[in-house]
From TrEMBL:
Gene3D superfamilies: Metal-dependent hydrolases
Protein species of origin: Sphagnum jensenii
PANTHER family: 2-AMINO-3-CARBOXYLMUCONATE-6-SEMIALDEHYDE DECARBOXYLASE (PTHR21240), CATALYTIC_ HYDROLASE (PTHR21240:SF19)
Transcription regulation listed as a keyword: no
Domain of life: Eukaryota
Family label: Belongs to the metallo-dependent hydrolases superfamily.
SUPFAM superfamilies (UniProt xref): Metallo-dependent hydrolases (SSF51556)
Sorted UniProt keywords: Decarboxylase, Lyase, Signal
Protein's name according to its UniProt entry: Amidohydrolase-related domain-containing protein
Lineage of origin: Eukaryota, Viridiplantae, Streptophyta, Embryophyta, Bryophyta
Record-linked Pfam families: Amidohydro_2
Stretches assigned to the Amidohydrolase-related domain: 132-409
Length: 420
């Protein structure tokens, strides 16, 4: 019987049924059998008693697999036919239970294996983070400027069309970018909008807030986000009416609206962070759900005096607001050294230590960077990963160079080939 149980346990379920049937065929003649089918042909047996099943098994050519098993079973089990059917029934139920348990264990093991495989796949996908340039500008070429005129007095001095940019990005292996509305077109977004429409897989737009008296204000911000698809807005404090701060009525209304629309506000503190830190902190405190981007390392220079130290301290201090992110961009604007701007490395470490790489993002400030270190070099400010000087882990580099942007601008870079 132990042998039978073992065979029942080890055999696939349909065969277990056959083994049981063959072992109990003689004792079952007095019991009214239930309709059964013979695996693997599922041939129905009209004379439904176990004996006829066995007869069928030994004669039917269509049931060769069943026959093989039943023949083995009947030889092995000869002499054990006197066991009462009820005992056999109980034992077979126990065997079925063992079998089901074993099957469940196997299924669980398979599920665990599948989960592990999926996790591995996710890990690989996480490694394949696209490279995103989170700060650059484009403006119309002289030819295009007939259709998209420059703002009077803001004619560009260097080329900066979308096509010029795309060439640079292809050369440097950059997948996507955030285009920040340039001052050259001031509040006229038509050129950048046309580029966003033309290359939806490449670009995400950051519009320019208009805080001027009687200007676009909140309404225009909402239109640009909802109708034109911009995903961020830039606050340029020097565009506010003279003597007014970014915390004035229109400033607060636009900052609040940006939070409502789910678009981050970028602060461009060209003349120094300390001139605007109070305004930024006030807005962050009052509207904690509005995300904030500090452009170009807050224009903080590697500190050489008390004022510069204070400025950096305040930039690092902004990390206490979870909504604040910092753009590691336009190194040529803050460094005192030529490429690779080693004097900024200490600041980068401090920013990584206070914000974490998932709140830092890389940017080139194209096209201005083309007359400095060049577009491709802009991506190699950090020491090489395998050098003794390396201080960002591979994971941190990936976050800064694209991962943070991808999670902040969800749904951006539509249909990008990297699967975004
Ligand atoms: Zn810029």
């Amino acid at each position: 019987m132990a042998e039978l149980l073992l065979r029942l346990h080890l055999a696939p379920r349909p065969f277990a049924l056959l083994l049981f049937a063959s072992s109990s065929s003689s004792s079952s003649s007095s019991v009214s059998p239930s309709p059964l089918q013979c695996h693997p042909c599922f041939h129905p047996h009209r004379n439904n008693n176990l004996l006829s099943i066995q007869q069928h098994r030994s004669s039917s050519t269509a049931c060769s697999v069943s026959r093989r098993h039943s023949e083995k079973g009947s030889l092995k089990n000869r002499g054990r036919r006197a066991l009462p059917f009820r005992v056999l029934f109980t034992l077979s139920a126990a065997a079925a239970l063992v079998f089901l348990r074993r099957r469940r264990t196997l299924q669980q093991a398979k599920a665990r294996e599948l989960m592990a495989f999926r996790k591995e796949e996710e890990g690989t996908a996480a490694l394949a983070v696209p490279t995103i340039d989170t700060h650059l500008h484009v403006w119309a070429s002289p030819e295009e400027s007939k259709k998209y005129p420059y703002f009077p007095g803001q004619e560009p001095t260097i080329p900066g069309s979308a096509e010029d940019l795309l060439k640079c990005m292809a050369e440097a292996g950059v997948d996507g970018a955030v285009i920040v509305q340039p001052i050259n077109h001031k509040f006229d977004h038509s050129y950048v909008s046309s580029v966003l429409q033309k290359y939806p897989s490449k670009f995400v737009g950051c519009c320019l807030a208009d805080p001027t008296d009687g200007g676009g204000g909140v309404k225009e911000l909402q239109r640009l986000v909802e109708d034109e698809g911009y995903r961020a807005v830039k606050f340029n404090p020097y565009l506010w009416p003279s003597g007014q701060k970014m915390t004035n009525e229109v400033g607060k209304a636009m900052f609040a609206k940006a939070g409502e629309l789910g678009v981050p506000v970028g602060f461009m503190c060209f003349k120094g962070l300390m001139l605007h830190i109070d305004e930024i902190e006030e807005l962050c405190k009052e509207f904690p759900t509005t995300k904030v981007l500090i452009d170009h390392l807050g224009f903080c220079k590697p500190p050489k005096n008390v004022e510069e130290e204070d400025s950096l301290k305040h930039l690092l201090g902004l990390s206490r607001f979870p909504q604040v992110y910092v753009k590691l961009s336009a190194f040529f604007r803050v460094s005192r050294e030529p490429f690779p701007y080693k004097d900024t490395w200490q600041m980068l470490k401090q920013l990584r230590d206070t914000y974490g790489a998932d709140r830092l993002m890389w940017g080139s400030d194209f096209p201005f960077v083309t007359t400095e270190c060049g577009y491709t070099n802009a991506w190699h400010v950090l020491p090489p990963a395998n050098s003794n000087e390396a201080f960002f882990s591979e994971k941190e580099v990936k976050a800064c160079m694209g991962g943070t942007a991808v999670s902040l601008f969800k749904g951006g870079w539509k249909n990008h080939s990297s699967g975004l």
